[in-house]
């Protein structure tokens, strides 16, 4: 309770993201393979605040977090991807750092002071027989 009261006081001095920004964000997820759109890939998005599923192309409402968003996409027999998308602090968060830092701690904990890109374009890698031309697979002996 004290943290939110302190954040409310700091909001008057510099803007507290917890009070002015949402802790959730809608992101669009699209996948590409060989520089072309690929639809129907199943993607799992995970960060320190939760886990979400979306089929591409699609939109999903996630909880914001100070840490990276891991995006794992797969389409059986076609391709897969595993990427980390960093979050970025926005202006209200830095205003809190300048005003004693209490609001910064609250915004970091709730994720309100951070955003991910609005559109996530995930580059898929071929799987199955199509990927055999890329070199030896795992467990192959190379001399």
Q: Note the total helix count.
A: 4
Percentage of residues in helical conformation: 10-25%
As a percent range, the share of strand residues is 35-45%
Order of helices and strands: HHEEEEEEEEHHEEE
CATH class: Mainly Beta
Rounded radius of gyration (Å): 20 Å
Shape: elongated
Mean pLDDT: 77
Task: Outline the structure in words.
There is one protein chain. This protein is α+β, with helices and mostly antiparallel strands and 143 residues long. It has a single domain, classed as Immunoglobulin-like. Helices cover 23% and strands 39% of the residues. It contains 4 helices and 11 strands. It has helices at residues 2-13, 17-20, 91-98, 102-110, and strands at 24-33, 36-38, 42-47, 50-55, 58-63, 69-75, 79-85, 88-89, 114-115, 119-123, 125-126. The strands form 3 sheets. It has a 5-stranded antiparallel beta sheet, with no helix packed on it. Strand 3 and strand 4 (50-55) form a beta hairpin. Helix 3 (91-98) packs antiparallel against helix 4. The longest helix is centred in the N-terminal third of the chain and has 12 residues, at 2-13. It is elongated, with a radius of gyration of 20 Å. Residues 9-19 have low confidence and may be disordered.
């Amino acid at each position: 309770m004290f943290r939110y009261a302190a954040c409310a006081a700091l909001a008057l001095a510099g803007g507290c993201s917890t009070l002015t920004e949402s802790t959730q964000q809608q992101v669009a997820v699209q996948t590409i393979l060989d520089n072309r759109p690929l639809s129907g890939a199943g993607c799992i998005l995970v960060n320190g605040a939760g886990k979400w599923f979306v089929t591409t192309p699609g939109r999903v409402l996630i909880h914001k977090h100070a840490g990276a968003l891991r995006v794992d996409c797969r389409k059986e027999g076609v391709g897969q991807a595993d990427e980390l998308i960093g979050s970025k602090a926005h202006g209200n968060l830095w205003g809190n750092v300048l005003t004693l830092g209490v609001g910064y701690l609250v915004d970091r904990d709730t994720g309100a002071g951070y955003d991910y890109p609005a559109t996530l374009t995930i580059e898929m890698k071929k799987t199955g027989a199509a990927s055999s031309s890329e070199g030896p697979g795992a467990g192959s002996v190379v001399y």
